[in-house]
Fold this sequence. Notes:
Blueprint: H1 2-23, H2 41-47, H3 50-53, H4 71-74, H5 109-114, H6 119-122, H7 140-143, H8 184-191
Amino acid sequence: MKTTTYYLSLIGTLVATLGFAAFTGAPTNDVDNSSRIIFSHELHAMMAGCEDCHDGVAESESLADLALPGKPACENCHDVEDDDNCGMCHPDDTFEALVDDEDELIFNHKAHADYDAECLDCHKGIDEVDYGSEAPAPPMAQCYQCHNDGRASNDMGLVASNACEMCHVSTANLVPDDHLAANFDNEHGHESELADADCQM
């Protein structure tokens, strides 16, 4: 009887933990298109600007406007009608549409471009990786360089609001990833004393 109770308790704890993690609603940025397309941001960054493939971004006022570049963007440089070249981009004759992340943020690229922000100011390191999933959407610490309510800590001297609802579609269950660690309750006191701790953010 004790064994059954123990296992039921263990299963209940596991389900609750997994349910909590799933319920936080934090963006995952874990879409991997590497089986659908052969692509290197690093290689393309040497020959083209971000807007050459991601056209319309500078005028976009919502993430819902944006989509991953498709065939029309590629054909600006590549001969997409040459069947002998398909394998250069499509592995194993795979012709599947790319999958994009689900938008969980409110973001206006145009407003940021109007402040003369460059793509790499926010998307740091994207020009050094192959797939975007290796360098996901900017982490909140990056946003905080400007969105810090008065403490400009960026090269442009910009300051913006850090009110949660300015950027997050839902603020009901915002939990930083490191707060979901099993040992967070026991360790967060020590971690908050580290030089790079940014609890205020």
